[in-house]
Amino acid sequence: MDRLSRRLDVASPKPIIRASLENGLLTEEQARLALAMADHRNLTAHTYNEALAHEIFAALPAYRELMQVWLDRLARS
């Protein structure tokens, strides 16, 4: 995908994740993880639950790895 020839008209996380999957920037597994990350982000903005905080904290290394892969692919596109 040529960076200058394609433009995605999306502005929120879930459509961007889906568009990234459709354009080969994410695998299905990575897209599922990214959608879970978006859900976790939404939960942290509206929920104050210590058990949930521990669950999200445990997922952070996987989210960091996913974001690095995603950014690398975006940089190459």
Automatic annotation (TrEMBL):
Keyword terms, alphabetized: Transferase
Top-level taxon in the UniProt lineage: Bacteria
InterPro entries per UniProt: HepT
GO molecular-function terms, A-Z: transferase activity
SUPFAM superfamilies reported in the protein's UniProt record: Nucleotidyltransferase substrate binding subunit/domain
Protein name: Nucleotidyltransferase substrate binding protein
